[in-house]
Structures
1.
Amino acid sequence: MEIEELIEYPSKLPVLVEDELFLYPPMITPIFINDTQNMSALELSIKNGSMLFVAPSQSGNGRNFDEIYDCGVIGGIMRKVPLPDGRVKILFQAYAKGRIVERISNKPLEARIELIKDEPLDETKKHALLDVLREHIRVLANISPYFSPDLLRTIDEEMDASKICDLILNTIRIKKQDAYEFFILTNLEKKLLKLIDLIVDEIEANTIKKEIKNKVHSRIDKVNKEYFLKEQLRQIQKELGSDTQKEDEIKEYYKKLELKKNFMHEDAYKEVKKQIEKFERIHQDNSETSMIQTYIETALDVPFEKISKKKLDIKEVSKQLNLDHYALNKPKARIEEYFAVRELLEKRKIADKDGAKVILCLYGPPGVGKTSLANSVAKALKRELIRIALGGLEDVNELRGHRRTYIGAMPGRITQGLIEAKQINPVIVLDEIDKLSRSFRGDPSAVLLEILDPEQNSKFRDYYLNFNLDLSKVIFIATANDISNIPSALRDRMEFIELSSYTPGEKFHIAKKYLIPSELKKHGLKATEFKLDDKTLELIISDYTRESGVRNLRRKIAQLCRKSAKKLLLEECKKVVIDAKNLNDFLDKKVYEPQKLDFKDKIGQVNGLAWTPVGGDVLRIEAVKIKGKGELTLTGSLGDVMKESAKIAFSVIKVLIDEGKIKIPKKLILDTKSNVYDQYNLHIHVPDGATPKDGPSAGITISTALASIFSSKAVKNDVAMTGEIDLAGRVLPIGGLKEKLIAAYKADIKTALIPKKNYERDLKDIPNEIQNGMKIIPVEHLSEVLQYALV
């Protein structure tokens, strides 16, 4: 609402005198009243409920019309506060400018007031004058303390020229008479031009003042600077015995930097040089000194100039892989293909294409040789191997580095790996990439996306170093146990190579060729001093270890070596022979006796085959029927997928019973008027209830258990099976076939039923030892499964 709409002008208002300065709308300012004249004017305003007219005095303490200016501001009283010393404080808000046109009363001062309004100005001319004014204000703000950033922003954004003039005049605090001349001037063009001239004069005055001040300081500095510096240097050298350690360090830093200059990116060179110059200037006792020095030394430790220049040779890679690893034919073949492509591109001088930029991820159970494969690659390429354990990593700064503003900041693990390797192109193993965590500290997988993406990792920025690192020359190899736990975006960057479980035969050969010779060397034993026959080694594999890999087997062999070393020294014998008879003297009692099959067939008990992240397992599924109403109970810590499999299996068995394909003994039929499956409650249980179980491969196993209890036919104890089922009874393919069949082989299973599609697709990957040691039968329909499984 405008001021004209509140009061009819000219208007009769009490007059309050301000001693110090002119007020401008829409200012809110406190006014202190300590004289009777102003107090009377205030009381009159409050009594009449009217606004108040505040006019500045000319002399500083005048209280009559002849001693005050005939202009001021019209406003209202927002608050009135009596003070202990007898004064009154009011909070006054100015609304508009006004002029006295008629004097009415002297005690208290009262006058008739009319509004002062600026004359309108052409928009084009107004914008031009405002642009010039704002430009000069910015110059003045740089050399004087008048204008705060908020005030400058207000002047830039405000479009009302009158308000801008009032803001500036109130800020620079000019003389009262000059302020009065601006106050009563209504020609906006003249006011803006006059204000611009005033600002120019202020700029010149402040510039001269600043120059004089600088000259005075410069003269003092020039006279005293050399004396103080020399005196300080003399005293320091006196105390430290002419210590020039810092100077020597700085020279060494510059020398190292120049050696690396041609291998560094320009922004890296500038950042390190800037920090060395800062270290050179800063005082030794400054709290930042050690932080800057640590940064410089870390940055100069990055091996920009050290590159392994050995040319790729696929023959050497293949030789090293075969020398260090038994079996693992498919993983070794894929690694050889990877380096064959890189070698061909290098020989033909072709820039890296997608084939050479693939990130390999080796996945499989623990102890099958994922990290050792990467180690063999590093040996063949004559490069350093750096292992970065990602298990449980949840702080994104662990990979990218901490910003130097934090206490205890340090570079990320990638940068630390390069410094440790002393090469800019080592082999980096990202171990357990499937066990990354995510928390409020960030998502490390997002940083890995940049590290592993060939399109981005040439400019990887470490927050601690504050410049880009080129990771495109690094060979990254990831390892994982379960790839389903890796975020999908990260999986998209990698190619997966599966390392399956070892068969007992493969473990035997690995132990003979690699583990035993390696452990003998570690324990200082000669081959002639230690004898372990083949049957005893097979016994250790079957009865003392249960694993997909060979890690525990290595520990057991190491235990044999330790005890043998002790026996050689204490008993002074020349040779230690370990066989089945004295094995218990060297190893503890058997930790695992393979669960052999029951000697007889049972109703409702079926051998299923399951995959786990640590290898395959034989999963026994049990089912019983109890008089009831056709309810299905599931126990054994089953996941959602297995629960759905059980429900599907129950529905398929119901259909087969209705179709007469499963014959029900008469003794089971309690009521001829209802279906037999509605007369019993079914309980399906998978033992070892503390272990979670899930996965789409138990469909035919559960179906066979249900068919067994309804038909009262026992299930063959030497048959195991794996496969999912649909509502039509078709057997669907599954994964992890090799691990499952290895587990069946270890448990002396004679016959394994597997989906026909897996038989056609995956049988070639099954070791001959397994295929020759058991009968593997492909099945397409549940009816075939029941034909082979039921007695």
2.
Amino acid sequence: MINHSHNFKPFFIVLVFILCVGKLSAQKIINNHTTEIHYLSGTDKDHMVEWEFYCSEGMNSKKWTKIGVPSCWELQGFGNYNYGFDYKTDKKLHDEHGLYKHEFSVPKEWKSKDVKIVFEGVMSDTEVKLNGKPAGEIHQGSFYEFKYDISKLLKYGEQNLLEIKVNKVSSNTSINFAERNADFWIFGGIYRPVYLKVSPKEHIERVAIDAKANGDINVDIFSASKKTESINLFLSDLNGNKLQNLPLKLSQIKNAKWHISTKAKNIKTWNPEKPNLYILNIELLDKNKNILHSVNERIGFRTVEVVEADGIYVNGKRIKFKGVNRHSFYPSSGRTTSKELSIQHVKMMKDMNMNAVRMSHYPPDIHFLEACDSLGLFVIDEVCTWHSPHLDTEVGKKIVKETVIRDVNHPSILLWANGNETGWNTELDDDYAIWDIQKREVLHPWNIFRKTNTMHYPSYHIFAYDSYAKDKIYFPTEFLHGLYDGGHGAGLDDYWKQMWNMPLSAGGFLWDFADEAVVRTDKNNILDTDGNHAADGIVGPYGEKEASYFTIKEVWSPIYIENRFIKPSFNGVFRVENRYHFTNLNECKILAKWVQFEGSKGTDKIKILSESEVKLPNLNPSQKGEFVVNKPNNWQSSDVLYLTAIDPNGMEVFTWSYPVKTPKQLNDGIIEYKSTGAITAKVENGLIHIKSNGIKYTFSEKTSLLKKVKKNDVIIPFNNGPIIFNHKDNIESVKINQLKDKVEIVTIFEKTDKSPSWASHKEYSSDVIKWTVYPNGLLDLYVEIKGKKIVKGFKGITFSFPESEVSGMKWLGDGPYRVWRNRMKGTKFKIWQNKYNNTVTGESGFVYPEFKGFFSNLYWAKVKGKNNNGFTVYCNSEHIYLRLLTPQQPKEDPNHRVSVDFPEGDISFIKNIPAIGTKFQTGDKMGPQGNSENYFGNDDNPILIELTFEF
């Protein structure tokens, strides 16, 4: 078998120690028929080995020093930074080179072995010498594994000198267009591990495996052995337990290749929902049945079919890709990553209910594909090209071969992508099948090619009606570009309804997974996204979850629950659809919790009134049905019902919230009006002064706007409201009513043509603002707004409160993230608390949730002041959004698509909010939810906003 030491940590620790002191000769662990891996470098970004290093230009250049390997040299403080798009600007394109030296010794016993040096990835042109002699031709291409046979160059039992020259810029023009001018950061260096691969002289060079869902196995074995007389195959589980011997149909094609056909019995298939894996063990045997060499490969049994004018099928099931694009990247290490990071990223994708990932725009680290195999994600594997001109054919053929040979056996890989966005060289399309025993289909991302249409960034309407490719399998390999806070979750609900219901749609891939903000070692370690080029992520640079993360999680939930509202007539029935591909719904469960928020002032404590497990119906994929939630006797005293779906692996699919009480019903149990106590009112110099319970309110006599709030001689800077948005009616009267237990200020606006004399609600026939002050200091506000049914612009009221005086907010409502009109899903109804931050999504701060913005389904909120006590507002009207301050706009949004215009004021209570766009589309191009028009009640059904303030 092949033992990679990064899978066996105790061995790795010993090995790294030996390598660091230049001693391999002490190792006696190699047996006669296995391959062993010995790292000359470290294994990842967190485990590097120092080599000697010289950088020709830039930081720390023109001197020999040390560098950790593997690494990108810029992140280690050498050379210069470039973003790919720098070629379009007046920025200098840096072309420094790096020189590496490393000494190591090997045991004498290796002289009878086959020894290769393997480079998993070097940027870019790589010249390798061992003991002063070239190891082979210069390798070109930054993202591909390459190796040299160094058996004849080694000094056995002695020190060996490895020398490597790495040119950051390739001498091949097409490589530079593909890799150096692309839309991502450009780095230099040996950024993936380097190791020695030590095998018997009679050995297997590589194997290519096709394991079908019905158990059929076809294997190509490429062997350097001339003594092989027979081959043995058997299947094991992942723990090495032998499951079955495999009968063989054996044929030898030429001297170096054997082809084997066999069939496994009683296997479980591989798919993202149930990623069952096995070990295929292969043994070369001589004429005496002695093992010459043994290797093993981890495989999954699955069948992929791309059926023209129909769909993409895996194991007979037609697939909808719920995918994302992902770069191999980490802020402090560039393209050098780790197995732990790969696992973390795959788990986050799975947590968002994704089932697919596209490798943008180059093959990833091997450990990322291994994580996709074991945790379950479909993969599109891609070679690196970027627009025109494409890779030249000579170097392109080598790159395709290196990509397919390395990755051919991963069950997660469904498709190959021949470059990106017109960068494809059509002369390479048929080369994939030469090296791929599975003959997987080839895509041209952003193109109509063969059976597929992978258009990028279609608008909602173009996606639905692309008449140029109606008979193609339709899935954008990039859509909803997530620049800053736009895209991703915004518009996804609309797009997914189309994708799910269009027969020829195979889903799509969001752009992209994470903000590529790099640590600038030349600029005091700031995080740099190169303006708006790399701020595209669902998560921040270090995996910080943005709001879209949870929107995606809900929209792409494989357990789809129709929208539901709980009213007194609620019968407990929920309609559900199974949107899994391979899982029956009864393999999952739902936990139902009826919850009450405790405390007269809304503390964080909750009381669970009832908790039960809901039995889900027997529904195969795509089937619809119902489930019933038990209603306890006291269910109407609950504040909210939570439904948490749990998948067969015990992971949360999503938690849905269903408020039971209206805002007024809930707040009536919190707000305490007291009729006793002194309350005074007077009018002076155009101002209305009201004193109550140590609070002094000042209103304008002319407009009734709140001008000042002072409590115990401390000003609470909440004022200048309520201003009604888009309101031009003149004031007819302002009246002060001094009653026994309260004071009212009633403002009546003039009737207009919009408000006929017969229309009325309560006692008012036109727009009205009514303040009520109580003896205990509580302040009620009632606003009634009549007008047109369909309007553009904001409907609601606003106040001022200086941002500099705000320190945080605690609230009951949807959260903890802000929402946009076309990104409403992904929140949870509960009590939340956020500290003030000034995060500009994807650009600066990277503290989430963002503090400022629109928040839905407000029940109450406590705005915390810095130099004052702030205030609490209770919202007694349904479906009100809280606008909290004005987010800072990103610096680079030239088309104003992801910068949303906010209304006047600082704190607003409104009935409608705007949509947000993407880098390439405005919100109204992204589906019905992005429409800027709003439907409201007219004169006989006005907008009502009822609030209670507690200072």
3.
Amino acid sequence: MKYILKIQDKEAGSIRISGGKGASLSRLTQRFPEKVPDGFIITTEFFKYYIQPAVIHVQDDIKSAVAGLTLPADAVKLIQSAYEDLGENISVAVRSSATAEDLPDASFAGQQDTFLNVSGFQAVTKAVINCFASLYNQRAVSYRAKNGFDESEVQMAVVVQKMVVAKAAGVMFTADPITSDRFTTAIEAVEGLGEELVSGRKTPVTWTVKGGTAKKRNGAESCLTEAQVTALSSIGKKIEKEFGSPQDIEWCFDGQRFYIVQSRAITTLFPCPSSPDGFKRCFISVGHLQMMTDTMLPLGMSFWKLMSETVNITEIGGRPYMEITHNLNSPAGKALVRQKLSNSDELMNHAFHQVLERKDYIKSIPKGQKSEFAIPKYVIKCIIAGLKIYRKNNPAIIDGYNRRMEAIIQKTRNELAGRSGKAAIDYMINDMENLMKSLFDPDGFGPLMVTFFLTKPIDKAGKLLLGKEHISVDVSKSVKGNITSEMGFSVSRIADAARDYPEVLKYLETAGDKFRIEDLKRQQGGEDAAKAFEEFFSRYGMRCPGEIDIAKPRFAEAPGKILPTVLADVRLPKGHAERRLLQGQRESEEAGKALVLAAKKKWGARKARKLAKQLSFYRNFLGLRESPKYYWMKRYWEYKQAIIRESEKLVEKGRLRNVEDVFYLSLPELAGLFSGEWKPDYIKIDAMRADYERYASLTPPRLIFSDGEVVEGEYKRKVPNGALPGLAVSGGVAEGRARVILDIAEAGKIEKGDILVTKFTDPSWTPAFISVSGLVTEVGGMATHGAVITREYGLPAVVGVTDATKQIMDGDRIRVNGNLGYVEFLELRKEALQ
């Protein structure tokens, strides 16, 4: 047994002996001996022989028990001898190195302790003991539990290295951890020791290096020159090549030479797409186009692929992507992508155009089939029907459309009730065609298409006649028939029914996931609130955040999720939602009248009548904007209930472990399971569950190549210094406290006047809009859900703000400029957060 090894010993390259950090440094020393400070490793054998036996029976506070150990004389002598071999009374760094640390899939960065500038063998010995003790600190134990490590198998080594008298130090990521671009090296540097950066005592200067070009991201003065940054990046790429994966590297600089004091794999990069033939292939995020960038479980992805037959969907990091490689060298293919992106995501569109400028790459693309954004075959019928409906301009047709859609849902319910097992899945697969057809119902989608066409002439008239940009925003406030806007008012009715009853409010505040309408009825005054909840779940129970993934829990399945939104509304005055609705109607009517009057004065009566009809039709039918998706989700809810019913039968028979396992199966696998032809592979399912938990924390790029390069788009317009640019989708300016919310379950934090900051919104977020004064999202476009609803509610909104939920902190006071498209910081977290 070897208790201490020199850092350059080949034996020290084993994680089992030296822990993750020690093994990595040993390997670096063998490959780059001049780059790694000399030192030694106190191995896991030392830990097992001298440390573990002394605390094996300790049940509580193991860390204190280890820290209080007195090592036997022979152990102290080993440490003293190794330390003195480095030089006389020199300063060293003493670092923990656990076997569950600096691994390819779990870095454990910062979980155990490090001690710098330690001198004298007694101080070194004490630091070593404290490093061993840090294996048992609460954050390390919790991190290991979260990542599924067996405590009994985790061992600890300690690395002792000569200190470098650093003029500068920091960290280097050989792939950009923010964008996941493998072609960009990100370097953070501070003067002096790197500990100043890690502890947060100094703000680093950040550099990026791509294609040999170094650029500063922030910081006025740098402790490194551009040439030094480029040289350091080159060292990083050599280390990356040695380890075979992107690295998170700690470095220091003594004014003459760079030293490497740690290197571990970056575990938070978005996965690379695959390329069967090795050619560099280009992919765009479908999730950004659909405004749902969360992970989509395999069952949800399977449904999505069925609905996207004209688009070749590829799953990357639990998200849907589409390959556009062969569109890039096809005039028709480029036009298809350009048209789609220009209407959906400005940043992705700019990234796409950057790729188009790579002439040599585009010339090298081999022949292949381009991805199609095929126009659904039902659209022509919709256009014809829409024009006919425009001539009559009779909104009564909407009632017929809604009745027909409800009848289709009832038919789906009846059909599934009469099927079991594989037959139920077969029905869903075959029903996809009918689902797509219903989304493009001529009487529903037809007039909606006309409203889309009318937006441009209405805005043009507003500009010419009144000098006002985007007047369509004003005339679209509080339109009739928007079923998603009505969901917000439905929540307000619940709040109005609950507001005056203390027992009801107490129950709503404490029920959480155990909320039941039956329990609510038992509270004094709870009958009216219960009735309002029943009405809400009857109409909107099938909705939820990320609802295009059928596996996501619906409000009907997790009713407690809507409670924070109700409680946020309770803090507002009774009837506020209805007052906002009426105010929006008045403002819309006034805007329309002013526009028509101006047209009559300048253009004459005939043109004014034409414009008046356009405005009337626009308001009569724009509310249909949210209806197709509403009925789509109602259809999904019928599918999901049938899947759960059949899964519960298998659980009862012992053929399935639990219902949630089916969400990690594809539709063909589910059909095989229900028919008895296929048995669930729980090892595979559990591995997938772990993968998806990891994917959930990753940020999906808008455009990524199969070799890991990420191309980022930029907004080309100027914004005030320090402001965050985005896309203005709803006019006005709002100032208030930022409420950064990643889950609608946190909506209870919202107070009147707050500005909601989140990654994206879908219809399930609508109730939260009732309580806020503005909206900021990371994803979105002019026609997306958040844009439409904020315009109707008269809320300023800026979407597509890169990393908004990271750059804006909860509690910052911000200004949202929905006219020009940016977010300004007023004060940072001045107010204490509740």
